[in-house]
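Researcher: Go.
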Amino acid sequence: MKVVALVGSPRKNGNTDILVDKLLSGVSSEGCSVEKVYMYDMDIQPCIDCRNCKKGNFECTTEDDMQTLYPKLTEADVLVFGTPLYWYGPTAQMKLFIDRLLPFAVSKTLKDKKAVLVVPSEEGKEACKHLVGMFKLSLEYLGVQLANTLLVKAYEKGEVREQPSILKNVFTIGRSLIQL
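Model: Structure:
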């Protein structure tokens, strides 16, 4: 099994990154292949609604780093979306990425894959309901099943390290991904 994690936080070693790392540690402890991509290290242009992805090979023709990400997504069995809560939604870089998944809506290449959503937020689970709803609907549109949602209350950089029970739970959830 291959898991690709997309970290949509601008803070390396921040709460999102720590949670995703813990989840991936659980996955790799079961012998699975893992890869982590920092979205803020990628040059991702906005979707311009040219609709080229709805013709021919159903591929996006915008030349940027999404061209390296598309094959990774196709090869993955499980996708992990990690983003802090920004104004009750994902970070701008994560949203750019999601907008550029349109070719998969047409080709259905991601159909039947599984996804996990990891979201730390200052306000906790209740504040994440719109973000979770956006991801659920977007993933359903792509034919991807949202298998698990990890919503953690954490705001200051690295604060989640002070919550060992949550980190243990995230590791356990990572180990259980092999059963998806």
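Model: Strands lie at 2-7, 33-38, 78-82, 114-121, 145-153.
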